[in-house]
């Protein structure tokens, strides 16, 4: 008897790539990094680019608050390559900071050198398989439409195997509902974080309003 639990799992990056390939009428691959398959490589690039774009908007699953960053022996504070957005937090909120060349830069004093550690809030870029299924689904559909338009000039895909605008909008609603059900919400301030407002309207062509990473 077949094991019916084999498909009861979250979408993998390989499955996502094969979904994109199906949108343009091509067969699946067995390896995410398939240099011999140009379409698969282009699909992977599109998937990761769209994932980065979506995650930059900031969601409960990739937003971190009250993170303490420490200085190195030169007084500089390194910032990881996976950090998409960063701002000072809490008692250090008065210090205006940004990221420059892999380090935190003090805009208030125009220097890379800090006297001590600093508390920040940040948005982190997570790998595809470290994000919730609702986010994976939205990213796959959005990437599938962009990939199909790029490869065959038809956003809805080939032969009924692609996604349409309604699919994309519906998957975003599900992601937003998931966000609303899971994001922490401070009943006193209405917001857990105060990172600069990020415009998510580009994700669905103006259907969404400005929002902060933590509301």
Based on Cα principal axes, name the global outline.
elongated
Terminal CA distance reads 49 Å
Strand/helix succession: HHEEEEEHH
Per DSSP, the total helix count is: 4
State the helicity in percent bands: 25-40%
Oligomer designation: single chain
Q: If you average the pLDDT, what whole number results? A: 84
Radius of gyration: 20 Å
- Class based on secondary structure composition and strand pairing: alpha+beta
Topology:
Layout: H1 13-23, H2 38-56, E1 63-69, E2 83-88, E3 97-100, E4 103-106, E5 118-124, H3 133-152, H4 165-182
Antiparallel strand pairs: 1-5, 2-5, 3-4
Helix pairs in contact: 1-2, 1-3, 2-3, 3-4
What does this entry show, briefly?
The chain is of the alpha+beta class and 215 residues long. It is built from four helices and five strands.
